[in-house]
Design a protein that fits this description.
Helix content is 95%, strand content 0%. It has helices spanning 2-41, 45-104.
Length: 105
């Protein structure tokens, strides 16, 4: 059961990472398209500077999200270890319970 949860968690993590990468790619393409349209339409350096600042802010946000995804991966791994430990403890507890019942007879 631990392996099914591990596989599921890993699959969810990989799927989330892939979706994030796809969304980042779409955002980058949209920003590039917007920058081209702005440059063609107005030639306003003020608007271009504003777009560049927004892009830089998005890049920082993406770096933060990537760091958070790595932390989530670590937490997932730790939770998997804890789950395995709990499963092992439950098996041992069942054995101890059987031994106590045998001693009470």
């Amino acid at each position: 059961m631990a392996s099914a949860s591990s596989t599921s968690a890993r699959s969810l993590f990989v799927e989330s990472k892939m979706r994030l990468a796809d969304r980042v790619q779409v955002n980058v393409n949209n920003i590039a398209s917007l920058a081209r349209q702005i440059q063609r339409g107005s030639k306003s350096s003020e608007i271009l500077v504003h777009a560049a600042k927004n892009f830089a802010q998005q890049e920082h946000g993406l770096e933060t999200m990537e760091a958070n995804l790595k932390k989530i991966g670590l937490v997932t791994t730790h939770l998997e270890y804890q789950m395995e430990s709990i499963n092992l403890s439950s098996v041992i507890l069942e054995d101890v319970t059987e031994q106590v019942r045998a001693m009470q007879r």
